Amino acid sequence: MLKQTIRMVLVFSLLMAAIAPGTTYATGNLLNNGGFEVHASGNTADHWTFRTEGAPDSYIAELSTASVSEGAYAQRLSQDGTTVPGQTLRVVNKIDSGFTAGDSFQLTFQTNITSLAEAKLRAKVEYYKADSTYLGRSLREITNATSDYSAYEVTALVPADTDLMVVAFEVVINANGGYYNLFIDDVQLQRLVSVGDTTQVGIIGGDLKLNTVSGSFMDVQLNHQTTMTTTMTTTANITDNRGNGEGWAVKISATDFFSQDLADPSSAGKASLVLKLPVSNLQLETSSVNLVSGQPVDATYGPAASSFTASNFSQTVVRAQPGFGMGSYNVPIRYTLLVPKTLEIISLTGTDSKFKVGDYVGTREGYYTATLNFTIGTGL
């Protein structure tokens, strides 16, 4: 599989928002022992820590050879049906270097969930200050079993003041009698490094190209009596000059929107907070693929565009099947952002606040920033 990724930063504001394109590539794995291959003793591999919550009576947490994606071992977590809500098995890996505030990361992993009922697997990247103050998280929840190993990813944006990143996998029981058996393997945390600010990227020898034309959200007037939305339209241009007819795909993933530090009015000026606007409130709509030159658009084999709700994992926005898409095409993409009337507190610093992380408060004016990742290539 050949691919290239570019990053666009989305900034939403109740005053104004903008989109700025850039070019990124993924660095090496920041995790120690992400494949669970080095193991001295205990419930998990070296550099990983295991713990429980909710006092589970019966569980399995071990390095297993029964089902692996790569190498010889995978992390197994399992509970039978003698469970109560809130019981949790958790393995974590801590990273204290190799990142700075504002960096974008992608957590990828493989999991084989042979059974799962009244439970959920949560893959998280958590952020902390040096004094263990919790700053926020990026999260992916999986609630269904798989037929074999499946790949998942979480896109993360490091907030200000982060001294420690924690990659965590936890399985949580939702109801009495919940049970599960699963294996986790091939965990990687890779930094997406900016290498330029151009909107045109040469992919695969410079012959498959993606251009993104930036746009801006319109101002939004905060009004709790109406539905608040804002829109913008950008254009993606895909040009395939390779002449080999391999086809191609463009995928998009995004982070949640995060506010800047906001004064906490409940603390008499002693605390500040950061709010999250979920990426699931962002809709992407594509109604057409317009031929610029080259091979005409085929109604069956493409290039064809899709509309969907934005997510932390990659989704295909435009695809050309093999034998098609050998030309240049413009794809207008319309973004519609629904502004909630309440937002979740994901970071709280200072003292005397009447809130805690996880509480919902009324939507505050200010800037909210997210990262939008475009990936183009073959074999996606």
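The above is record 1. Record 2 follows with the same two-line structure.
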Amino acid sequence: MRTSRRPDAIRALLAASALLLHALAVVLPARAQSGETARAIDGIVAIVGGHAPSPTTDVVLRSDVELRAVLALAARTHDPAPDELPPELLAATLQEIVGELVIAREATRLHAPEPTETQVERHREELVRSVGGEDRFARLLERHAVAASEIDSIARRRALVDAFLRANLEGSTLISDARVEETYASGDHPFTDRPLDEVREPLRAWLAQSALQRDVRRWVEVLRSRTPVRVVVPFAALFEEDAADRGVEEAEERGDVGSER
């Protein structure tokens, strides 16, 4: 039996899957150039599904990671992306891409239906809204030389993963009244300063989103455990080196190292 809470659960599910697909982008097979020449110029940072590029593996290019990082920054700030993206952002972005790819590969393995053009367009519109509208979106594409076909590929892959998540994890969003009331009484939620009657549905959506995120994380962990992933460029290591360099610079500024007495 359908209830009035069903649309709220679906919206919560869409919101959670949008968080999983943060920056609204998924790794693309190649940029505008063709074949292995483009891959050699662009630079492979990871391979999912094997240890070498092949027709059965997904290749993550450095430009793919940088594009997603730029979009993530654009969604959070109106400032232009820096000339050099922070290694920690690149590391987190790469991990998100790999997680999305293992879900997409599972969807393909289970013969999930291809997304409709309406679904693809909806995800493109979400991407545009996330960075501040059509004008800013167009400026980002021009500044970073991103082809419209790349955005279409991002939206299409995102639509596939989103539909697959909804079909397989929708049960995570069904939150009972008893669960809502128990959570509200515990105080372990972001609505502690408002009465229950006022926040019942927002709290239900928050619980549904939290549950779905947890289930998605667990699912990705399982899929990654049985999917070969080769990371060629460990951005996390670059992040650690960058942090170490900053620590040395700060110590030198304080006179803790490199000073002569």
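The chain has ten helices and three strands.
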